Amino acid sequence: MATSSKPLFDQFLMPIFERLIDREAILRLRQRIDWDTELPRFTNPQVAYPDYYTAHNFHGVKNGYLNIDAAITYDPITQYVLPPGETWVRESLVKAIQGQPRRILDLGCGTGSTTLPLKRRFPQAEVIGLDLSPQMLVMAADKAKAAQLDITFRHGNAAETGLPEASFDVVCMTLLFHETPPDVAKTILKESFRLLGPGGQVLILDGNQRTLRATDWLNQIFEEPFIRDYAQGNVEAWLGWAGFETVRSEDVFWLNQLSYGRKPISYPANAAPSPPTQTENPYAETSAQPA
Ligand SMILES: C[S@@+](CC[C@H](N)C(=O)[O-])C[C@H]1O[C@@H](n2cnc3c(N)ncnc32)[C@H](O)[C@@H]1O
Q1: Structural domains of the chain in order of their starting residue, each with its CATH number
Q2: Closest ligand 1 atom to Cα of 188
């Protein structure tokens, strides 16, 4: 029997997505954005890309997220892969935030599809989205500007943000960990712990690890290089390892899960936070001011 050398993503999913997405609208978007002007605004030349990020394709896209095509097709495709509905799934994270946070950080914010709802729900809060892909950040800023939301988008590595200690009330991430090796996910949680003030909340919305373990065929089709390792792991255990308390997870429909934890109010003196300071590196921290 002849076998195709094409990845399963190209064989099965791309033909479906090609029927669902509006190619003309995507082309118009590509042409409307002045990429030559926008990309340098969201590129910090000091950011070093980790190997796992550049050495793999994600969802069949070469060069992963460092690619305009990945950025402009991300939203049209993602709307079909978050059952029972993208808005509902993302809102599960936004609604789980307690109190009135003053500073919120969305790590691996991508095109800002959770960052924007965060700002809408907490208009008084300073909201920052951080991502390794300038292309994704250009899209996020474009969406924030169109929605007249004042959000800062910053080029950086979630594992090593360079942001000041104890300077956030909420750190969250959506759909990030299934795309990072588990060791990187754990390092990102350690960094989140450092960034949160005492009592600060961490929230992680991602694929449901139990479901993914039971549906290995899904993992093959989506061409996600780290999703099997993610499925074998346990976000709650990683949160505990990073120092968070009151850790728990809940199912979000059957394909996703939301995990939470809090930074303890008091913790060992040698881990005590220093008072928040201004960000030292102003590079590539670009605010999407309302239009
Ligand atoms: C599947 S997308 C999720 C985007 C967005 N959070 C969402 O919910 O739609 C994963 C994103 O994580 C980013 N990413 C991966 N590793 C990262 C890291 N170490 N630091 C910052 N961003 C990272 C990618 O560039 C990509 O934009």
Answers
A1: 7-265 (3.40.50.150)
A2: 19
Q: Distance between CA atoms of 104 and 97, rounded to whole angstroms?
A: 10
CB of 103 closer than 8 Å to CB of 278: no
User: What CA–CA distance (Å, rounded) separates 197 from 278?
Assistant: 15
Distance CA 156, CA 216 (A): 32
Q: How far is the CA of 1 from the centre of ligand 1 (A)?
A: 38
Residue 209's contacts (CB-CB under 8 Å, 6 or more residues apart) are 230, 231, 232, 233, 234, 235, 257
- Averages of pLDDT over each 10 residues, the chain, 291 residues: 46 62 84 97 97 77 83 91 96 98 98 98 98 98 98 98 98 97 98 98 97 82 83 97 98 96 82 42 48 41
Question: Measured from the CB, is residue 105 less than 6 Å from ligand 1?
Answer: no
Atom of ligand 1 nearest to the CA of 136: 27
